[in-house]
C-alpha cells in the first residue's frame, strides 16, 4: 500500500485494530500483570509498568505520526520531559529556548539542577549566540531544548537551522511539539532527535486526560528512553491510553478548525483599537510568517495579546461569558490564561520580563466553537474592561 495521508494515519495508524478479536477500537487492557506460560516464557507482556497492550497501541500510533522509530506514553507532559532530561548526567548542560513553558523551566531549575545538570537560556533564533555558547562550553552542552512556536509569545525558530547547528556540535535537539502536533509540524523530519508532547493538549483534545508522549528518531535513543520509562515508572495508564487514541482520531479536523478560528481572531484583534499587540505566527506583523510556513502546515490555535492603556486586563479575563480563565490549552473549548501568574509563574519575574512576558500578557487557546460567537464574547469583555 502506498504511504497514507496524514488524515488517514490518524485513524488507521499504529495497528490500532485488536488482532485477537478484530475490535475496531483497541481494547482497554485494564490489568497490572499477565499470566506466564512457564518460567521466562510469556506472551510479550509481564507487568504493565513495563508494557501494556493499550499503551503499546498508542505508542505505535504516535511514533508513526511523528515519523519516528519508537514512541512512549507517559502520565503527563512533564513526566515525558523529565524522562528525556534523565538521559543526562552531572556536569551536563542543556540549552533551552528563551520562551519555554514554565513547568519545563521549573523542573530544570528546581529538580535537575540539584543533581548537577545545568541549563542556559538562549533565543535560538540568534544563531550566532547559539554557536558562541556551544563553542564556549562544548565539553558540557549535551542538548538543545526548543519550543516552536514558543509558549507564550508564539515566536518561531527554524527547526532545520537549529538541527544543523546541533549536528555540527554533536548535541541532541529536543523539540516540544505540543502547540503544533504532528498534524501541522514534524520536527524529526526537519532534523530533530527527540520530540516531546504534553498530550493533555491537542493530541487528547477534550480536556479530559493528563498525558505525555516522547518520540525518537534513532533506535539507540529509543532503547535508552525505554529503559528510563520502565525504571522511573511514570507511564500512561491503559484507560488514558485509550482516550488518547480516540482523541487522535479527530486531530485533523480539530486542528483545521483551531487554525481557521485562530487566524480570524488574530486578525480581528490586530485591527481592534483596544489591542496593543497580537502574537500569532501567521500575522505579517509577527516577522515569523515565512519561517512558520516553511516548516508547518498552519499557525496553530494559540494567540497571545496585550491590551492598550485604558483597558484593564484583569477585568477582561473575568468578563468573557464563553471563554473561561483556566490552565491548559488545546481542547475543543476556548480558554484564557494569564501567563505571568499561571503557566509561567514559576519563572522569576526578571527572567519573564527579559524575554518579553509582561504582566499584562493574555494567552488565548482558540477552540472549535463558532468563531463569530468567540469574537462577540471577546468584544463584549473588551467593552467591559475599558477604564
UniProtKB/TrEMBL annotation:
Q: Which InterPro entries match?
A: Cys/Met-Metab_PyrdxlP-dep_enz, Cys_met_metab_PP, PyrdxlP-dep_Trfase, PyrdxlP-dep_Trfase_major, PyrdxlP-dep_Trfase_small
Q: Which domain of life is it from?
A: Bacteria
What Gene3D superfamilies does the record point to? Aspartate Aminotransferase, domain 1, Type I PLP-dependent aspartate aminotransferase-like (Major domain)
- Name the coenzymes or cofactors required: pyridoxal 5'-phosphate
Family from the record: Belongs to the trans-sulfuration enzymes family.
Q: Name one GO biological process term.
A: transsulfuration
Q: Which PANTHER family match?
A: CYSTATHIONINE GAMMA-LYASE, TRANS-SULFURATION ENZYME FAMILY MEMBER
Q: Which residues carry this modification: N6-(pyridoxal phosphate)lysine?
A: 201
What start-end ranges are recorded for coiled-coil regions in this protein? none
One GO MF term attached to the UniProt entry = pyridoxal phosphate binding
The protein's organism comes out as: Helicobacter macacae MIT 99-5501
Example of a GO cellular component annotation carried by this entry: cytoplasm
- Name under which the protein is recorded: Cystathionine beta-lyase
Q: Where are the transmembrane segments?
A: none
Query: Mind listing the UniProt keywords for this protein, alphabetically?
Result: Pyridoxal phosphate
Amino acid at each position: 500500500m502506498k504511504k497514507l495521508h496524514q488524515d488517514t494515519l490518524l485513524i488507521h495508524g499504529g495497528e490500532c485494530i485488536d488482532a485477537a478479536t478484530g475490535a475496531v477500537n483497541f481494547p482497554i487492557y485494564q490489568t497490572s500483570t499477565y499470566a506466564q506460560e512457564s518460567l521466562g516464557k510469556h506472551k510479550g507482556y509481564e507487568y504493565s509498568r513495563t508494557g501494556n497492550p493499550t499503551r503499546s497501541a498508542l505508542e505505535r500510533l504516535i511514533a508513526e505520526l511523528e515519523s519516528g522509530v519508537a514512541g512512549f506514553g507517559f502520565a503527563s507532559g512533564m513526566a515525558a520531559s523529565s524522562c528525556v532530561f534523565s538521559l543526562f548526567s552531572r556536569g551536563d548542560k542543556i540549552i533551552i529556548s528563551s520562551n519555554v513553558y514554565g513547568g519545563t523551566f521549573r523542573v530544570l531549575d528546581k529538580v535537575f539542577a540539584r543533581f548537577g545538570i545545568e541549563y542556559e537560556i538562549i533565543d535560538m533564533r540568534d544563531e550566532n549566540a547559539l554557536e558562541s555558547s556551544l563553542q564556549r562550553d562544548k565539553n558540557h552542552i549535551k542538548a538543545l531544548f526548543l519550543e516552536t512556536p514558543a509558549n507564550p509569545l508564539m515566536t518561531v525558530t527554524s527547526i532545520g537551522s537549529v538541527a544543523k547547528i546541533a549536528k555540527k556540535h554533536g548535541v541532541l535537539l529536543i523539540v516540544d511539539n505540543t502547540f503544533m502536533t504532528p498534524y501541522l509540524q514534524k520536527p524529526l523530519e526537519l532534523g530533530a532527535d527527540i520530540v516531546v508532547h504534553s498530550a493533555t493538549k491537542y493530541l487528547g483534545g477534550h480536556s479530559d486526560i493528563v498525558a505525555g508522549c516522547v518520540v525518537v528518531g534513532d533506535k539507540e535513543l529509543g532503547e535508552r528512553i525505554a529503559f528510563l520509562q520502565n525504571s522511573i515508572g511514570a507511564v500512561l495508564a491503559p484507560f488514558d491510553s485509550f482516550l488518547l487514541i480516540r482523541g487522535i482520531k479527530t486531530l485533523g479536523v480539530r486542528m483545521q478548525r483551531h487554525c481557521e478560528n485562530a487566524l480570524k481572531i488574530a486578525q480581528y484583534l490586530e485591527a481592534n483599537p483596544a489591542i496593543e499587540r497580537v502574537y500569532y505566527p501567521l500575522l505579517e506583523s509577527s516577522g515569523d510568517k515565512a519561517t512558520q510556513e516553511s516548516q508547518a502546515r498552519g499557525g496553530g490555535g494559540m494567540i497571545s495579546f496585550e491590551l492598550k492603556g485604558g483597558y484593564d486586563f484583569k477585568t477582561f479575563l473575568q468578563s468573557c461569558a464563553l471563554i473561561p480563565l483556566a490552565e491548559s490549552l488545546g481542547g475543543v473549548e476556548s480558554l484564557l490564561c494569564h501567563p505571568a501568574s499561571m503557566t509561567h509563574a514559576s519563572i522569576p519575574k526578571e527572567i519573564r520580563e527579559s524575554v518579553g512576558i509582561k504582566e499584562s500578557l493574555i494567552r488565548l487557546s482558540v477552540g472549535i466553537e463558532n468563531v463569530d460567537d468567540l469574537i462577540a464574547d471577546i468584544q463584549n469583555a473588551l467593552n467591559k474592561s475599558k477604564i
